[in-house]
Amino acid sequence: MTDKQIKDQAAIREIFTRWSKAARNKDLDGIMALYSDDICSYDAVGPLQFSGREDYRAHWDRCMAFDDEFIMEPQEPTIRVSGHLAVARFLIRCGMRKEDGTEQASWMRSSYHLEKQGGEWRIAHEHFSLPFDFENGAAQFGLQP
Prior knowledge:
This protein is of the alpha+beta class. The chain has helices at 3-24, 28-32, 53-63, and strands at 35-42, 50-51, 69-74, 78-82, 85-97, 103-117, 120-129. Strands 1, 2, 3, 4, 5, 6 and 7 form a seven-stranded mixed β-sheet that branches.
């Protein structure tokens, strides 16, 4: 691996650190600063797709309307970089914690496509998914890594 790739991987890891911190703090501007203008997201929370910064910002704004505390606990990402493109993947414990301390959280799968734009890495595509049981169609919330 080249020195440039190592530096790019470190910069991308920092994006995920900033992302999870901003999400936990409900810092909408901090979150949106990490996305490209033409972000396409396949979030676990519907609809099927969010297209563009405005659409995705509105989604995050709706999510932040809840008084509950966000749980965003990503594992260490696996990152591959080639030139101005990168992909990353990791498992993330994601959900909400109520005022009484109860949690509604589960492990999810997460993958990203990032692009270097103007010398800065930005998230261009993200995909969150939750496994489901093929036989009965039920979401598998209780899985552990």
